[in-house]
Design goal:
The chain is an all-beta fold. The chain has no helices and eleven strands. The strands form two sheets. Strands 2, 4, 5, 6, 9, 10 and 11 form a seven-stranded mixed beta sheet that branches. Strands 1-3-8-7 form a four-stranded antiparallel beta sheet, with no helix packed on it. It is globular, with a radius of gyration of 13 Å.
Length: 126
């Protein structure tokens, strides 16, 4: 069963931080390009960030540049999304996704990925 599992979501105040984790069940993430997406109620699923399978390159949506950082720990086969300076508009369900490719695509769209996690809720509110 090729499944991804996100964790680390929760409720934080504006300006706060959260660290999301993405781990695999049934396979290793080391051979996959990993993307983070988010979806707010009534909105389309939005590409947030991507890291290639080597971990040498990363991409970010304009809305999160300078605030979010994607990384991967090969020893733990885990991908992280560090979210700082959180804003209410960051509130969404966050998903990680895996693509059987070496590099991130500039579009970082939903169709680029093969496997998805169940999502973890991030709520930014005072």
């Amino acid at each position: 069963q090729l499944q991804l599992v996100e964790s680390g979501g929760g409720l934080v105040q504006p300006g706060g931080s959260l660290r999301l984790s993405c781990a695999a069940s049934g396979f290793t993430l080391d051979y996959y390009t990993i993307g983070w997406f988010r979806q707010a109620p009534g909105k389309e699923r939005e590409g947030v960030s991507c890291i290639n399978r080597i971990g040498s390159t990363t991409t970010y949506a304009d809305s999160v540049k300078g605030r979010f950082t994607i990384s991967r720990d090969v020893t733990k086969s885990t991908v992280y999304l560090q979210m700082n300076s959180l804003k209410p508009e960051d509130t969404a369900v966050y998903y990680c996704a895996a693509a059987a490719s070496r590099w991130c695509r500039s579009s970082n769209s939903v169709s680029d990925y093969n496997y998805w996690g169940q999502g973890t809720q991030v709520t930014v509110s005072s």
